[in-house]
Design brief:
alpha+beta; ten-stranded mixed β-sheet; 15 helices; 50 strands
Amino acid sequence: MRIRRLMIAAAVLAAGTTSAAPAPFDLAGPSLVVDVQRGSAILPIDEVPALAEGDRLWISTAFSPSQTVHYLLVAAFLKGSTDPPPGDWIFPCKTWTGTCARRGLTVTVPKGARQAVIFLAPSTRGDVEAITEAVRGRPGAFVRATQELTQAALDHSRLTSYLNAIQTLGVSDSQALKKQAPLLARSLAIKFDEKCLDRIPQLQIACLTADQDNLILADAQTSSLAHTVSTGPAADLVMTAASTPQLGYGVYSPYLASVLDIVRILDSFTSAQFQYIPALATPHGNRLALALNAVPSFDSPKSVIVVALPAIEQARPPQLRPVDDPPAVACASDPHLVLPVEGAPLVFSTRYAHDMTLTLSAEGRPPIRLPAQADAAQGGFVVDTRRMQSGPAAQTYLGTLEGYWGFEPYRGPSFPLQTADPGPWRLAAGDEDALVVGRTNTVHLRSRNVSCIDRIALKTAAGQTPALKWQAVKPDEVAVEVPLTDAQPGAAELLISQYGAAQPVSVPLTAYSIPAKLDRFELHAGDVVGTLRGKRLDQVASLAFAGTTFVPGTLSSASGEDQLQMTAADATAVAALAPGAAQSAVVTLKDGRSAQIPALVDAPRPQVDLIAEDHLPSSASRSSNIQLEDPHLLPQDAVLVFSVRARVPERLPRDLALEVASADESFSTRLTVADGSLRLEDSRVAVATLDAGKAFGPSAFGPLKFRPVTAAAAGDWQPLATLTRLPRLDSIRCPADPGAPCLLSGTDLFLIDAVSDDPEFKRSVQVAAGFPGASLPVPRPRDGHLYLKLRDDPAVVDRVDVAHLDGGQELAAAASPAASAAPHQPPPPSPQEPPAPAAPKSDAQASGKP
């Protein structure tokens, strides 16, 4: 996680050897009080995302009354890493005497300043001169430290908000934790493991807060408020250092990799008089609580505490956006109204966005401003709608989030809203007679808008039931479960209570005891399962046809019609039925009544047998050096050729098509004689050609199935092949050190699940979900091969011959039994999610080359 940038700042400022590991910031330090004035407005420091030229700052210390050490407070402004600030940009203040002791330090941000930093140093002879000399002599070190400390503070605010909320929710309500933990993670851009919620409540908190070093995800908003070392001239140096195993911190290794070089540059920075230690500032109102990672020293060299203030730049407003696009209509009078937003974690973890309101506008009406508060646990802005509990019905509004981002006015996303709709409410077409006693029914209610529904109840002659289960399925339609298991036929009504409406709306209903409506029974010759069509078929107990009894199976509904699968008790007798003229069947209901209905034996459904299959590269396919071990794996850009033989009927019909689909049938295509994708070898055998890339596109993967289809019927599904997407591997680069990892480059590396140097995956690198990079660290090949598990089929281990990669020929030639027996270093760190895209990458970075 990027909070480790704190450790970079610590290494930049701390005196000592480059091999020492940076310490965590867990030591409570002093506090500062900072207020900022711009024009006539004064804000506490926790509402200021960025300073500006001309801002007036009031800075004072908040020492304990028992404080005995006198501290010198110095405020300094920086121009940049290559331009020392003038001497009059450094403002000392003796906190124990005079005006500074009474009122603190008042400074104005000078024109041309880009960073602001505060120093707290024990009073000693020559202290001001020493600090001034350090700042003017090494401005780049302090520019870098303020950038890293500012970024780390922003990341720390997100992590702290997440951890505090998880702890609070887990202790008070484990069910609320399951609901709100995903919302917290979305709001704060925190990596979230859904499997944690499957554990027992006592283990959920520990699981959700584990591995805190990798919880924070990259976020463009936080990165834009403090530039990082991943941009600029130092990028090449950083990327080179990042490949060292000593600094293997996953996706954030570029930041930590710069530690060694920075410390070398600033090795002479510590003087005999002072050493500089960074402080993490956590704002609360106008107070900055400081946390240190080193115990301050009051002996020479004495410790100078370095505190970063917000950067001096144009404030960048948050890029908030609705979670749904377009956003659904919300209820303006809902007392629990939450507007779901995402895209700006700092809105939830800081007070930079303040005085927020939801401004409701409607044609011909004055605007209404409702207070709004960002709540990460709710996943958006919670709106105070008490003013809307009484007002015009069915009034539509456009609500816009407005407020301030620091000193600047902010206008956020807009949402459609509406007040309670008095009607007319009506049953959806086809549901007028859908209520049948003795079962739970689902009816659909329609109106202009259903967003303001609070509860729905059923009122019958026996009285009113508790609230019913309901769900909005469309903006103007809601599905309601109506339990009538023990009810009697007769009149009933649904009572719809809405937010902001004084009285519920009544929708009259009628509960029926009418028997099922039976239309017809259909059976294909050779099948043992037929289809009974009609309505309310849950009352069916059995069906008799052609001397055989059929029993009910799966019941489904489509277009207002029930379809009930009926399975024959005697499969042998049914198999002998031949297609013929219309007959009749007798249906017996559960209450003992029976009815005679039409029945028909249709032509048999087509059946074919798979003979063989093979796959060839398509004209658009690219060569792959991944050797697929499973012959049933079909590369996504390959052409699958397979042959089938007719079974029923014995000759292939001219209108035959082969339908190929994914397991869930979300992707499907038909191969036909007409389009040339299905060719007849003779009257019984056909050869099909499937170009998977053209047919399904680049996002299809997984098992494929096929079935024969004619104009009359469709056959049974049969397994075919497993569609697999392959990354393209271009090159491998390995340093001279045999214990160091190699760098594998290519495209579509996110399709790799894991990489190892042995087929048993004893030393493997796991590739994070959504990895967008063009290169990743991998173990050094032991036998001239790397072994992959593809994300589309991680159960199979595939092999890569590194000799076919650019830079791999030498590795393959050097592979030998002696080299394979050499001791191996631990595998390199698994690549994680990328750092925030603060600036465009160079060509070297974009290609993934070190």
